[in-house]
Amino acid sequence: MQDNEVTGDKVTNILFCGTGGQGGLTAAEIVALAAVYDGYHAKKSEVHGMAQRGGSVESHVRFGKRVASPLIETGEAGFLVPFHKGERDRMLQYLAKDGVDLLKDLQEADGKLENKKFINTYMLGRLSKRLNISRESWLKALETGFKGRLVEENRKVFLGAAQED
Amino acid sequence: MKKIELLSGDEALARGAYEAGLKAAASYPGTPATEILEYLAQFKEVDAQWSVNEKTAFEVALGASVAGVRSMYSSKHVGVNVAMDPLMTSAYTGVNGGFVIVTADDPGCHSSQNEQDNRLIAKFAKLPLLEPSSPGEAYIMARSAFEISEKFDIPVIIRLTTRVSHTKENIEISDRIEVPDKPFAVNAPKYVMVPVNAYKKHIELETKLSEIQKYSEQSDLNAIEMNDASIGIIADSVAYLYAKEKFPNASFLKLGFCWPFPDAKIKEFASKVKELYVIEELEPFIEEHVKQLGIKAKSKDASYRIGELNPALVKEIVEGKKKTERPQGARKPVLCPGCAHRSVFYALKKLKAVVAGDIGCYTLGASKPLEALHTTVCMGASVTMFESMSKILGHGKVAAVIGDSTFVHSGITGLIDAAYNNANGLVIILDNSTTAMTGSQPNPSTGYNAKGEASKRLILEDICKASGADIVEVIHGFAPNLQEKIKELMGKDALSVLIVRYPCKIIAPVKDPMPVFSKESCTKCYMCLQVDCPAIHKDDDGNIVLEESVCTGCNVCVLACKFGALKKAD
Q1: Fewest C-beta in 10 Å: which of A13, B80, B225, B358?
Q2: Whole-angstrom Cα distance, residue A143 to residue A51?
Q3: How far apart are CA B68 and CA B79, in angstroms?
Q4: Terminal alpha carbon distance of chain A
């Protein structure tokens, strides 16, 4: 059976938060896919259904050699990827002391993106700078995650965001 | 062929069943179980169908098993309630082809009307219960379930929970194995549950269960993992993973074949550890059994029977704490911009109607500021609760509101009941032509099926007339006379059905010009905010702001403005 090993190795925890329809769940899916393509064990957990009608949406992504719990604990998220300021404030308690809050990237995206629907791709680009996942896996995950839609556009936004300082 | 995919618990279970030679699957959409059938619908080898409701789904799947193929029923936990009648007796008939019953429970009520623990149904119905803790285990247990089902001639329950169903992880998938159909033979003592046969089958079932209990003892789905013997934890489902996360060095008895309980294994494990804990979500299902065996174990305070667990709460349980309810503060879900449900609820609110509601997106009409839906209990209850409420409170005051899919699920029988028993008043069918809340699945009134093929279409007007409604009318969701029409039909001494027809904005995104807002005419009365639309809000200075990117131009807010500050665009 899986998950019976003692989990000693470091697990990367990323919490996505926003409101329904912003693309946060797709972003979480892409990170989990990229981690899987890179050979990690990944878990992604979220809630579907009623909450998605404009309500709070959060997705927990964890990857490492072996992951047990699908949920990130309070104070344990290495990265907080917000799509909504209010939701970010509410979820800030999850951020680890040495964790990275990508709120600044979200706010900067407003001025940088011509089309706001690429916001999740932009945030992934920003996140990618800080994760140990190969570019090849990222690009493959982008294509799978967006189901082959707007491949070139997403790739351009992602690579642009990944190259910014 | 081996291949790694990122699959949810629902998908992994479906994949495992597909690979195990599944040929028939029936379900009714419901979070968190929906994706099981959606995943199966892609395979030509599987006759996967959305049934009208869970009872019909169960019977369809059972029939397929009796006819000789591996089959599966799946639904959310409360859906199993609808299927309980055939489920209980299927334990007596047993199966022919392997038959698996999947229940996806929702601890924490993320998207449900209650958080019932369906492990109790296994014991109640006398059916074996498998519980995966992760998608990887769901994938494996699907095959085990078919094997157990055929070995013991009994349906097998697999119980998922939201955190198993909606967690994704790496799954190494494989090819499908074709399983030969079992020959069908007429066998009245097995399949005809008249009293004389049923009594004998009950005797047989009890014998079977003692054999299954022995099998459960030997099953590697129940695994002892010895580590630090000073702390031993018995856990099932995702609670096992939370405990593993918090206490990686503890010893575990991981229950995957949860019922009938492996008593000898439980006793053996208890004897090997110094302090024993039972960690499980919701009801004290394992706890009570362990204690019945005379084993001393620490378990959760009753306060943790409410809501789901997480690693931090597991730690609190081990520390012997009581649960403190924490404020959630999450944003409430809201009807989509341009949804015609808003238009109907705004009209009902203006009419001060008491509204018997049902289950679907429109349940959101209950929340502030609309507050225009006043009961929600279960699928179909709107029509029948309206039937009696309107007789007692007056039919001019009470209306029923039900969606198209829910009406077909179990509203039709209610309408016949209301007509047969001379109820008067108005039943509103919110016909958005899809099963919206669970992600736009088709239903009999849409004219296509789970595989996307054209099917016979149920005409709602015809079935309403045939059920005995005196008046059946169809109106557009944003018709200017909507409120007037609702008032007229509520007041009549007749049983009326008003079908409000307007496609769901998610499947048919239509955008009309945004209303024109005049700041000069606005008195800041904020009546427009009463329609609860995501496209309209007040800014920090109290000024009304319309968001062009969100607005679909439905103009319900225009109806709310008495001062002409909001006007329909030319």
Answers
A1: B225
A2: 27
A3: 25
A4: 43
Matching residue, tokens 């008895």: B253
User: What residues have CB less than 8 Å from B169, skipping those under 6 apart?
Assistant: A41, A42, A43, A44, A67, A70, B6, B7, B12, B134, B135, B136
- φ, ψ of residue B427 to 5 degrees: the values are -105, 125
Return the amino acid letter for B128: P
Q: Two tokens at B553?
A: 């131009």
- Reply yes or no on whether the pLDDT at B74 is more than 60: yes
Q: Are B277 and B240 in contact (CB under 8 A)?
A: no
Tell me how far apart the alpha carbons of residues B472 and B102 are, in angstroms, rounded to a whole number: 38
Task: Give the ipTM.
Answer: 0.93
Cross-chain residue pair B110–A32, CB shorter than 8 Å: no
B192-204 confidence digits (pLDDT tens)? 999 999 999 999 9
Least confident of B116-120, B373-377, B419-423, B548-552: B548-552
The conformational region for residue B348 under phi > 0 = left, psi -120 to 50 = alpha, else beta, is: alpha
Give the 3-state secondary structure of residue B313.
helix
What count of other Cβ atoms lies within 10 Å of the Cβ of residue B470?
Answer: 14
- Looking at the complex, does the CB of residue A111 fall below 8 Å from at least one CB of chain B? no
Of residues A2, A19, A50, nearest to B437 (C-beta):
A50
Residues of A in contact with B242 (CB under 8 A): 68-69, 71
DSSP code of residue A73: P
Dig out the tokens for B106 from the structure: 């929702």
Confirm if B227 and B267 have CB atoms less than 8 A apart.
no
Is A55 at the interface with chain B, CB within 8 A? yes
Least confident of B26-40, B62-76, B429-443: B429-443
Q: What is the pLDDT of residue A13?
A: 98
pLDDT above 70 covers a percentage of chain B that reads 100
Cβ under 8 Å to B: A residues 65-94: 67-71, 73-74, 86-87, 90
DSSP assignment, residue A97? Answer: E
Task: Check A54 against B334: CB less than 8 A apart.
Answer: yes
CB B132 within 8 A of CB B256: yes
Q: Does A39 touch chain B (CB under 8 A)?
A: no
Whether the Cβ atoms of residue B565 and residue B548 lie closer than 8 Å to each other? no
Write the pLDDT tens digit of every residue in B353-364: 999 999 999 999
Q: Quick check: B333 and A20 CB within 8 A? A: yes
Q: Nearest by CB to A53, from B133, B227, B334: name it.
A: B334
Strand B544-546 relative to strand B167-173, pairing: unpaired
Residue B66 and residue B23 in contact, taking contact as beta carbons nearer than 8 Å: no
DSSP code for B408? I
Instruction: Characterize the bridge pairing of strands B566-567 and B516-517.
Output: antiparallel
Query: How far is the alpha carbon of A159 from chain B, nearest alpha carbon, in Å?
Result: 24
Alpha-carbon dihedral angle through residues B435, B441, B446, B452, given to the nearest 10 degrees: 180
Provide φ and ψ at B355, rounded to 5°: -115, 120
In this prediction the pTM is 0.96
Asked if B335 and B361 touch (Cβ cutoff 8 Å), the reply is: yes
CA-CA distance, A125 to A154, in Å (whole number)? 10
The encoded tokens of residue B187 equal 């066998």
Quick one: how many helices (H) and strands (E) in chain A?
6, 5
How many CB pairs below 8 A link A and B? 135
DSSP codes of every residue in B477-520: TT-TTHHHHHHHHHHSSSEEEEEEE---TTTS----PPPEE-TT
B10: nearest Cα among B100, B110, B116, B138? B138
Element (H or E) spanning B252, and its range? strand B250-255
Alpha helices, H only, A72-145: 85-91, 103-112, 119-128, 135-145
**Per-residue DSSP letter, B332:** P
Tokens at residue B292, please? 């019945």
Report d(CA A72, CA A59) in Å as an integer.
Answer: 9
